[in-house]
Amino acid sequence: TVLVELADGVLSLTLNRPEKLNSFNEEMHMALRAGIQRAHDDVTVRAVLITGSGRGFCAGQDLGDRDPRKGTPAPDLGNTLETFYNPTLRLIRALNKPVICAVNGVAAGAGANIAIACDIVFAAKSARFIQAFSKIGLIPDAGGTFNLTRILGEPRAKALTMLAEPLSAEDAASWGLIWKAVDDETLLDEALATARKLAKGATFGLGLTKQLIQASATNSLDQQLDLERDAQQKAGKSADYAEGVTAFLEKRAAEFKGK
Ligand code: LHQ
Q: How far is residue 62's CA from residue 21's CA, in Å, rounded to a whole number?
């Protein structure tokens, strides 16, 4: 349910249930999580690329997994989040390596919010982001209430989630919700080129940068200045910093090792 490929330091994870628009069943949840866990554990992985196969990126939870018409008791969705979605969200945010997302088609419900939780998001111009939850009586999960509100502010976060109207890739980019909307034909090449470039970069420093920016959500300026001091101290002792300065002085391209 998830295609996994490691090349040039980039671990590509392709959601692969195209006939269901890559909506999440339990197997796909566990496969995606295993992929991101591998990125944590494997030092040869220096960047991650998440995309979807077929015409969609991800339609959120597979709603065919449970059918209220069959009279089954209401499922415990809190448990579903705690067991399946929240660990994946936490793993993406905790990973000290850049996570690039290539949104190749519709991203709905938790599928939209997992995309938004990635570090650098490209979307095909034909892709749409739909906060579909309100249409079925649910709340925006997978970090949606946190990320949408921080990125867009309350007015847009509330309208997007309550109205569940599709947001085009170009609007998502102009609203600052994603990095770039690109032509459908070039999406994967551009996202992969970016992932490869980052994988060759000073990834130790990139991991610190990611954590600092995420920490700022709940910190004061004073707390961030303290964090910057401590992180720069670590970055300053890294082999990548020594190599970066040496390469600059020698007027050549740096060869970073990610440590
Ligand atoms: C699907 C799905 C799908 C199954 C398309 N499931 N089959 C929820 C509950 C539990 C715990 C915690 O969290 C959550 C979080 C959530 O993610 S809630 C939100 C769940 N997702 C949705 O409500 C989106 C449902 N899908 C749609 O609204 C549409 O399919 C979109 C707008 C995504 C795409 O529309 P179209 O491009 O017109 O495609 P389609 O509707 O024709 O879908 C293609 C096929 O994929 C179709 O199957 P079929 O056999 O008829 O060809 C759909 O039934 C299937 N599919 N989404 N979530």
A: 9
Are the C-beta atoms of 48 and 36 separated by less than 8 Å?
Answer: yes
Range(s) of the chain covered by CATH 3.90.226.10: 2-199
Flag whether the ipTM exceeds 0.90.
yes
Q: How are strands ordered across the β-sheet holding 56-58?
A: 56-58, 106-108, 128-130, 167-168
Q: Model confidence over 95-107: pLDDT tens digits?
A: 999 999 999 999 9
Determine the distance separating the centroid of ligand 1 and the alpha carbon of 79, expressed in angstroms. 21
**Statement: residue 66 has pLDDT above 90:** no
Token pair 């892709």 in the structure block, residue:
127
Rounded Cα distance, 143 and 150, in Å: 11
Which residue has a Cα nearest atom 35 of ligand 1?
A: 106
Give the pLDDT confidence of 176-221 residue by residue, as tens digits: 999 999 999 999 999 999 999 999 999 999 999 999 999 999 999 9
- How far, in Å, from the CA of 20 to the mean position of ligand 1? 7
Q: Is the CB of 60 under 6 A from ligand 1?
A: yes
**Where do the CATH 1.10.12 domains begin and end in the chain?**
203-249
Fold of 2-199: 2-enoyl-CoA Hydratase; Chain A, domain 1 (3.90.226)
pLDDT tens for residues 26-39? 999 999 999 999 99
- Please give the class, per CATH, of domain 203-249: mainly alpha
Pocket test residue of 21, 23, 24, 163 for ligand 1, highest count of atoms within 8 A of CB: 21
